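# step 3/5: fold
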Amino acid sequence: MTQFRKVTDRFEVSPQITPDEARQAAAGGVALIINNRPDGEAPGQPTNAEIEAAARAGGAEYLYLPVVGRPTPAQAKAQAEAVAAAKGPVLAFCRSGTRSITTWALGEAAAGRSKAELTGLAADAGYDLTAVLQG
């Protein structure tokens, strides 16, 4: 099973998940699953539709917000709004988890959260966002 990495009490990131993992995450209390990975990036990758169906079958809400390269300000804002509106814990995933945590951190920074705090939270989850959040 994929390792979910806790960033805050309400937000986790993960590398690619399977439909079974989406269903299990939802059954385990995840209220919203965010897919930051575009379909077709790699052979054998589960499709957005497969993950969405499993997440919803498990009782979670679902957001498809594919990011290619660095997230845009609009994507960061959309993810921040979705996380804030979620009725419980959120799991965001992509190929490695990096795009998901980057999108989240940029949205949080734009909303005024300390870049130092965000860099620390990311580091605790195993991601280095120093270059992303500098300045």
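# step 4/5: annotate
The domain at 5-124 is CATH 3.90.190.10 (Protein-Tyrosine Phosphatase; Chain A).
# step 5/5: archive (pending)
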